[in-house]
Specification:
Length: about 160
């Protein structure tokens, strides 16, 4: 089964030129995320704090669908309860186990209002997961963590997506 993003969109690096070339977009559920992807992402990128990417609908006209920011981070296994630590370490050979592991942080994620309700957020997360487990990824990273608003709906969204 193909997804909306696969059928209708192109994956792009987020840029000021891209934002200026597209019609106005909004994220009414979280205006701070909207503002981030309109103006703040560039400084974040220039300071090497994270990199933003997105999906653009190209047919019949250019339209911003969704965006996300990823950054380097780590999974601090040493601070987890023993059962969680054991579950994480179980798949790693003893001689490679560590107190922390490299991780990719999804710091911002937005599906813009015009595309709300199409399960695109789930598709974006699936894309990020497959992108970073690909053997050709640049970071050699096996964990993805999120920094999300402490809101029950948002937390349930990430739980549902593993």
């Amino acid at each position: 089964m193909t997804s909306y993003l696969e059928e209708n969109c192109e994956f792009v690096e987020w840029s000021s030129l891209l934002v200026a070339s597209c019609p106005e977009f909004s994220c009414s559920r979280d205006r701070s995320i909207e503002n981030f992807f309109k103006t703040e992402f560039e400084n974040y990128n220039n300071q090497l704090l994270g990199k933003s990417y997105g999906f653009v609908k190209t047919n019949p006209s250019l339209e911003l669908v969704a965006a996300f920011t990823v950054a380097n981070s780590m999974l601090p296994v040493v601070s987890f309860p023993k059962n969680v630590k054991n579950r994480i370490n179980r798949k790693i050979p003893n001689y490679k186990r560590n107190s922390q592991y490299p991780a990719v942080l999804v710091g911002q994620l937005a599906v813009f209002d015009a595309f709300s309700g199409k399960q695109i957020g789930n598709e974006v997360l699936s894309f990020i997961k497959s992108w970073f487990i690909d053997p050709l990824n640049k970071t050699g990273c096996r964990y993805i963590i999120v920094d999300a608003v402490n809101n029950e709906k948002v937390i349930n969204f990430y739980r549902k997506n593993g």
